[in-house]
Design brief:
Layout: E1 21-22, H1 33-49, H2 54-72, E2 79-82, H3 85-95, E3 103-108, H4 116-125, E4 128-133, H5 136-139, H6 141-154, E5 158-162, H7 174-183, E6 187-191, H8 203-206, E7 210-214, E8 226-230, H9 232-235, H10 253-256, H11 282-298, H12 300-320, E9 324-325, E10 338-341, H13 348-357, E11 360-361, E12 369-371, H14 382-399
Parallel strand pairs: 1-11, 3-4, 3-5, 5-6, 6-7
Antiparallel strand pairs: 2-8, 7-8, 9-10, 10-12
Helix pairs in contact: 1-11, 2-11, 3-4, 12-14, 13-14
Bound molecules: pyridoxal-5'-phosphate.
Residues 84-86, 111, 113-114, 162, 166, 191, 193-194, 214, 226 line the site of pyridoxal-5'-phosphate.
Amino acid sequence: MTNAGAELGSRALFPTLSARVYANHAAISPLSQPVVARMHEAIADYAAEGLGAITPWVRDRELLRCELAEFFGVSANTLGFVQNTSSGVRAVALGVPWKTGDRVLVFDGEFPANVTPWERAAELYKLEILSMPIDRFRVDPGRAWIEFQRHLDRGVRLVAVSVVEFQTGFRVPLSEITRRSHLAGAEVFADAIQAAGAIPLNIGKLDVDYLCGGGRKWMMGAEGGGYLYVHDRCIADLRPVVAGWLSHENPLDFLGAGPGLLRRGRPIRPSTDFVEGGALNVIGYAGLRAALGLIRAIGTRRIFDHIQAWHDLLEPEMIERGFVSMRSERAEGRSGILSFAPPAGHRAADLTAGLLGAGVSAGNPEGLLRFAPHWPNSLNEISGVVAAVDGALSDAESRG
Ligand SMILES: Cc1ncc(COP(=O)(O)O)c(C=O)c1O
């Protein structure tokens, strides 16, 4: 694998990317050449070797586990591979040793991947769901902390929150949320899909109890490859409800190590990889490893600074045109996402359609116009983006 050509502001590794400006990493990442090449390698190996391809690619995935662990500042045995963020949330939502009446705090305005599984668990285990608006931490933090603390004081078993909000791009004050939650005896589950890859993220330092994410956005891998982190202190209590045939200790022995090993009741591994209960997306993880290699070669601090420089150039232009910026005033509240409420009389969906027509790929969640550039985006793109915004605004106006 090579990390050659991974340069801030250069699209050299994305030669077939059709959008002139791709600023939609909060939705999905285009695949870079090294990621595509690595996935092709895996496919070619399976085409040539069949069963014989498994061992080298399982080894490759174990290397990815170690590299991800280093990247996140945790140990490898705390990470498991899951299909997507939702599978990671589900594994924990079903596996916490709940007691009837336990309370889970979720946030209004959160992406549903970190809400729905808790609601399902609430139905199954007779839990109580509490909620408060997540955006309050951005617009009125004083009031948010009072409300948050009031919930904690009622007794909360678990707080489920995203590291970065998908619509506003607000990076929530996760360290303080975690500190207060732990003081009140609550655990914290964090969804990192909008954060990991775009901002420096040391899970070990954050001290959250659980965290998961997917590889297809800011990590720049393919769809269908995610990760789950479970802190050492939580793993023994987490019930392996989602375990499958590959979750046992030495799960393959019965296939190759002799007769008599296919017994029922074999123990489930007491590590996060128990979530890998069946065959995994080998090709997707091969790609994710290449993608992570590129991110690590550049470094998330430099990536974050580069993205902020892109945002710094675009934000005043948008404000001048009547857009309202959702960006946090504080650097620690910022992320890869820069979102705007459109000027009166404009709809974000129309504007993104207009932008796409001009070769600029952006998103429009919850009525906001969302720009999500990453390391390959150049600062020279901004004048083109602004011209495309002007075009989209005047098209919309002329349509009345
Ligand atoms: C905050 C957040 N969580 C989760 C997801 C996706 O969940 P999954 O990986 O399960 O598809 C998204 C966006 O697609 C998101 O913005």
